[in-house]
Amino acid sequence: MGILNRIVLGASLAVLVAGTAFAEAPKGTASASASVMSNYVWRGQKLSDGMVVQPTVGMTYGSFGANLWSNWDKKSGEANETDLTLNYATSIDKVGVEAGYIYYGLEGLSDTAEVYVKLGYDTILKPALTVYYDVVEGEGGFAILSLKQSIPAGSLSVDLGAYASANLGNKIMGDFNGLHNAEVSVSTGIPVGPATITPLVAYTFPLSDKAKHALRNVSFDGDSSVVYGGVTVSLGF
């Protein structure tokens, strides 16, 4: 399936789901953003040979959400991935719960899909555990334990993030069981009129020899550790 067809399909699905399942929700929001990144890096995998542009549109109605994301590669001049995410999120006291479905539309590769569940706790460092399961090509799981903390800096705040992951037999991630990669990041949101500009710098690296081998096999330039960054411009409605 071509990128354009996937975009039309994804947008149609998002509108259809929103119009049916979300019709009686108490309130809704919409957002749009575009990120210019030095590389496309996903779960430690360096999936581009240079700069990418990643536009996103999303909406929420009550506890439900839909998001359409794409990756445009500057070197090839083409959009090579378009993802559709549908999710439901709620909270019980300080415990946040989210469940969702992600469809990965890939140009030149077989499309795939994941279901996921995320549990978070609203306390210092905002710990959260997300477990994904690839139901098509990967036929296995992937888990991410993440932390984040905002530090006031004058009228702004500096956001520190970190996560560690484990592969649970997911063939796309290397078909092994064990620790995969970790990542640390620094970002800050700068309000500019109705928009927010967010620069980010991140460093990702493998946590095991099996992960290092898997990352080198799939990443451009054979990199298993990557420093990357970029800027995101976002709008909320």
CATH superfamily: monomeric porin ompg
CATH topology: Porin
Contiguous low-pLDDT stretches (5 residues minimum) are 14-25
Count up the domains. Answer: 1
Gross morphology is globular
> Could you spell the SSE succession in H and E letters?
HEEEEEEEEEEEEEEHE
Radius of gyration: 18 Å
What does this structure look like?
The protein is mainly beta. The protein has helices at 3-21, 209-218, and strands at 28-37, 41-42, 45-46, 52-61, 64-73, 78-92, 95-106, 112-121, 128-134, 141-153, 156-168, 177-188, 190-192, 195-206, 226-236. The protein has a single domain, classed as Porin (Beta Barrel), CATH 2.40.160.40. Strands 1-4-5-6-7-8-9-10-11-12-14-15 form a twelve-stranded antiparallel barrel. A two-stranded antiparallel sheet has the order 2-3. The longest helix has 19 residues, at 3-21.
Give a brief description.
The protein has helices spanning 3-21, 209-218, and strands at 28-37, 41-42, 45-46, 52-61, 64-73, 78-92, 95-106, 112-121, 128-134, 141-153, 156-168, 177-188, 190-192, 195-206, 226-236. By secondary structure, it is mainly β. It has a single domain (3-236), classed as monomeric porin ompg (Porin, Beta Barrel), CATH 2.40.160.
List the main descriptive attributes of the protein structure presented here.
2 helices, 237 residues, Porin, single chain, 60% strand
Please specify the SSE layout and strand pairing.
Blueprint: H1 3-21, E1 28-37, E2 41-42, E3 45-46, E4 52-61, E5 64-73, E6 78-92, E7 95-106, E8 112-121, E9 128-134, E10 141-153, E11 156-168, E12 177-188, E13 190-192, E14 195-206, H2 209-218, E15 226-236
Antiparallel strand pairs: 1-4, 1-15, 2-3, 4-5, 5-6, 6-7, 7-8, 8-9, 9-10, 10-11, 11-12, 12-14, 13-14, 14-15
